[in-house]
Amino acid sequence: MPISLLGRLGFRFRILYISDGHPAARILIPIFREIKYCEYSERKPTSLESKVFTKLLSLFGRIPFLFAVPLGGDGSARYECAPQERKRILLHTHLDGHHGWKGAVAKIWALENWIELCRSLDKLQFEVFILEWDSSSFDALTSACPYLKDGRKGSDVETMRSFEFYDCLFSVDSWSKYVAAWYRIPQVVVVPDLRTGYCGFEEISPDEFARWWFHGIIHHKGVIVIGLEKAGDTYSYTLPSMNDLEVNVALEKILDVLR
Questions:
Q1: Residue 137: CB partners within 8 Å, gap ≥ 6?
Q2: What is the chain's mean pLDDT, rounded?
Q3: Helix/strand/coil percentages in the chain, nearest 5
Q4: Which residues on neighbouring strands pair with residue 224, listed in sequence order?
Q5: Three-state SS for 236?
Q6: Is 123 exposed, middle or buried (0-12, 13-18, 19+ CB in 10 A)?
Q7: Is the Cα dihedral 157, 160, 162, 164 positive or negative?
């Protein structure tokens, strides 16, 4: 929904979210509280709120566009860095599984693959940054590739604001794809078949996944999706698991999206 536009016109929004102990809650709730024109409340919606939300979802769901979320501030802050001589790429490595939940094995690509990709990008003169919250994985990556730079900032919101600093994002399907889309950053998103190895997605079809989780992203210029492809009117998963992704294919797609 175009929160920024409607907010400037005087509209206000309420974000309702029941965490139920989901590991994403510790990240989402602080972000909810930073969104301008919005108020966060941990409760279920009333019947009237549900009806209003359904109507708005139907209206804006017809627009194949992802509206940027206003994350407070004036959006003008730039992170200090040396004059840019090399393209900056951010890798969301996801070796923590999912917000520290190691049971989400579907999104974990072997550490040695990330190391090989980082070394290949460095040889091609990319400046490589990583988003990784598992400390042992972060240490292993930076030990093998000491030129890697930490993409994490003081808070998750500050990390999101820093995305304008990058030239490209490579990620295993996650929240970072939305932020890259807000800033119109070229990106490559890997989507393994989440119906195995990822709780809650067993019954979600590829069509439903593409329609809801990639609304305003898939098939847009500057976006390449590996593993979720459309044939005719339907989508299908084409990457059974992260183990089936070859490093040279990932590198090729990164170079393609930057051309």
A1: 93, 95, 96, 111
A2: 89
A3: 35, 15, 50
A4: 188
A5: strand
A6: exposed
A7: negative
At 91, give phi and psi (nearest 5°). Answer: -110, 120
Amino acid at 139: D
Tokens representing residue 171 in the block: 């990620």
Measured CA to CA, the distance from residue 165 to residue 167 in angstroms comes to 7
pLDDT tens string 71-121: 875 444 444 555 567 899 999 998 987 666 666 788 999 999 999 999 999
Query: In the chain, what are the domains?
Result: 3-60 (no CATH), 88-257 (3.40.50.2000)
Q: Which pLDDT score is estimated for 75? A: 45
Distances (CA, A) of 86 to 82, 102, 110, 163: 10, 34, 27, 16
DSSP letter at 203 equals T
DSSP state at residue 108: P
